[in-house]
């Protein structure tokens, strides 16, 4: 307790936020999220205090993964011993934007490129289904049209980059004429594509094959518990 009290109030707040964030989401927060929660306007100030926490023996950081934070010191009132944050050997995946599980929304068409360093996330290797981290990307889900497939608003889906899909697979589908994308089950039917939601309150989207480009197939989901 005395050692923890030697930390500044800001550093104690950061530690508690990182602990609670991991308990709710299962993966560490980004530098930006730490700054927003702890009322720190500069990412360099967040980095400075994280490095102080490293020096004090409370956390470890991976230089290759933006969210690669590991808490190794006890936090009074929250943990009785060292707690490791992040699965062993996390892999680095680009969180490239958001995707609609509902109505289509815009998505940058440069998946895997020009991504802010702070928008990479640490993902347990088992969530990548054996694919290399350079083959995958992540998107934050907006909407609830896929709730019957166990995906809800706020989740992060991990996808393999590919431009083909089998019937029934869940994909990120780019609608070129609308310049929008959506998360749906893919079905090729005669002369059209059916993008099927997993929620009875939503209607399927029917498009011509020339207006539908598969961007990736869903491999797994990271649940954001509230």
How do the strands and helices of this protein lay out in sequence?
Layout: H1 2-5, H2 9-25, H3 31-37, H4 43-55, E1 59-61, E2 69-71, E3 91-100, E4 120-123, E5 136-142, E6 156-161, E7 170-175, E8 180-189, E9 192-196, E10 205-207, E11 213-222
Parallel strand pairs: 3-5
Antiparallel strand pairs: 1-2, 3-4, 5-6, 6-11, 7-8, 7-11, 8-9, 9-10
In short:
By secondary structure, the chain is of the alpha+beta class.
What can you tell me about this protein's structure?
The chain is of the alpha+beta class and 226 residues long. The chain folds into two domains: 70 residues, Winged helix-like DNA-binding domain superfamily/Winged helix DNA-binding domain (Arc Repressor Mutant, subunit A, Orthogonal Bundle), CATH 1.10.10; 132 residues, Umud Fragment, subunit A. Helices cover 18% and strands 30% of the residues. The protein is built from four helices and eleven strands. Strands 4-3-5-6-11-7-8-9-10 form a nine-stranded mixed beta sheet, with no helix packed on it. A hairpin with a 7-residue loop joins β1 and β2. α3 packs across α4. The longest helix has 17 residues.
């Amino acid at each position: 307790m005395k050692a923890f009290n030697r930390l500044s109030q800001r550093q104690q707040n950061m530690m508690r936020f990182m602990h609670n964030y991991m308990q709710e989401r299962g993966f560490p927060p980004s530098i930006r999220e730490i700054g927003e929660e702890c009322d720190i306007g500069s990412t360099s100030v967040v980095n400075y205090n994280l490095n102080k926490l490293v020096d004090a023996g409370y956390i470890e950081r991976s230089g290759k993964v933006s969210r690669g934070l590991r808490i190794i010191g006890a936090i009074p009132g929250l943990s009785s011993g060292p707690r490791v944050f992040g699965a062993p050997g996390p892999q680095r995946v680009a969180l490239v934007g958001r995707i609609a599980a509902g109505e289509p929304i815009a998505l940058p068409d440069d998946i895997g490129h020009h991504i802010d360093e702070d928008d990479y996330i640490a993902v347990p290797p088992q969530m990548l289904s054996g694919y290399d981290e350079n083959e995958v990307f992540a998107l934050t889900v907006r909407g609830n049209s896929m709730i019957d497939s166990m995906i809800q608003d706020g989740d992060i889906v991990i996808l393999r980059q590919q431009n083909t899909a089998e019937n029934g697979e869940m994909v990120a589908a780019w609608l070129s004429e609308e310049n929008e994308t959506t998360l749906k089950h893919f079905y090729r039917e005669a002369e059209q594509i059916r993008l099927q939601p997993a929620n009875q309150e939503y209607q399927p989207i029917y498009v011509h094959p020339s207006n539908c480009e598969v961007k990736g197939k869903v491999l797994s989901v990271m649940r954001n518990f509230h």
